Amino acid sequence: MGRKRKTKSGTDSSTASQESVKKDSKIQKTSEDDEMDLTAIIVKLDKLSTQTNLGFKQLHEDFDTFKAEIKADVKAIKTVIRDLEKATEFIQNDVEDLKMNTEEEKTERTLLTNRIDSLEKQIQDLTQELKQQKDSLVNLEQYTRRENLIFNQIPESQDEDCKEKVLGVLDNMGIVSDEIKFHAVHRLGRKKEGIRPIIARFVSREDRDAVFFKRKEIKNSNPNAYITQDYARVIREERKILVRAMKHGRNQGITNIRVLDRFLYVGNEKFTFNNLPAYLKDIE
After folding, report:
1. Residue 182: beta bridge partners?
2. Which of 63, 109, 160, 190 is least enclosed by beta carbons within 10 angstroms?
3. What digits encode the pLDDT tens for the residues 97-115?
4. Cβ–Cβ under 8 Å, residues 151 and 212
């Protein structure tokens, strides 16, 4: 029984030794593993440090680039601001100049307006004066024609004596022509198709008026013939318009319409060539 205890005791000692070796081995392995983990950590930390340094370096570079861009932008903005300030200054100067010019132009405009008004007044006065002078000349010319009568549609012949033809017309009208004297008797205008009128300038205004008073008697011997007064050219042009208006009125059935001198009479109404009523205008 004693050997058996010994053997058992030896067995226990050997087992303890093996366990101790295993434990030491495990501790060594753990130590090695820990050392490997630490190395990996250090490597990772170095790598992370390197990446961080690279990141910071890139960040610094990016920041420097951004700072340079900001500086360039600020410089450009400052340039634009300076240009705007200069432009604003120029504009202000221009505005001041415009204000001055506007005031000057306003003054000049006022002066021009006054001048134009004055000129318009002068033109109106001159126009009125010219009209009066024109009327005076027409009246003067008409006065010089007051002894004249025009004999129209008196047959024209070669080598005729116009005075004898007029005296013959007067005889046919029942007027004693022996004592009637003329300054001149002749055809008007150049020879052309149609019958030229004869103008007779009487020595006596009384003889002229007596013949004109009996002017309708001329149709007794010549239905186409008629006698008119000798009007100035301006009055003749006016009368052409008035006569056309008179004919137009008669075509519309108006009977109490007639032309006398420079006027058209429709009943009790009196018109000149430039104020004809609408229903008598546009006459061909």
Report:
1. 202
2. 190
3. 777 778 878 888 898 889 8
4. no
